[in-house]
Amino acid sequence: MCQIFAGQDPADYEPETRRLRLNGQSTSIRLERSFWDILDEIAASEGLSTPAFVSRLHSEVLELRGEAPNFTSLLRCACLIRTRQTALRPLALAAE
What we know:
The chain has 96 residues and is of the alpha+beta class. Helices cover 61% and strands 17% of the residues. The chain is built from four helices and two strands; from the N terminus they run αββααα. It has helices at residues 2-6, 33-45, 50-65, 71-95, and strands at 15-22, 25-32. A two-stranded antiparallel ribbon has the order 1-2. Strand 1 and strand 2 form a beta hairpin. Helix 2 packs across helix 3 (50-65) and helix 2 (33-45) packs across helix 4.
């Protein structure tokens, strides 16, 4: 079983830093490439660029919570939510 995890391509977990604007402030976010790939997919499905999607998400978090103490962790968890939703979609369709 561990070979599934240990044998993954190192490029998938290589850190990648992207520069973008959050609420008008220039910043950089460093995530593993696999997370950026998922964020790119989410953004495309929303009809947005990845920077626009991340900025919108950041704004919504500020509205709901007042702050985002660890925004990169929030982004990783958003990717997990998306992955779970994608995995469960075929099961929901099969049940119909």
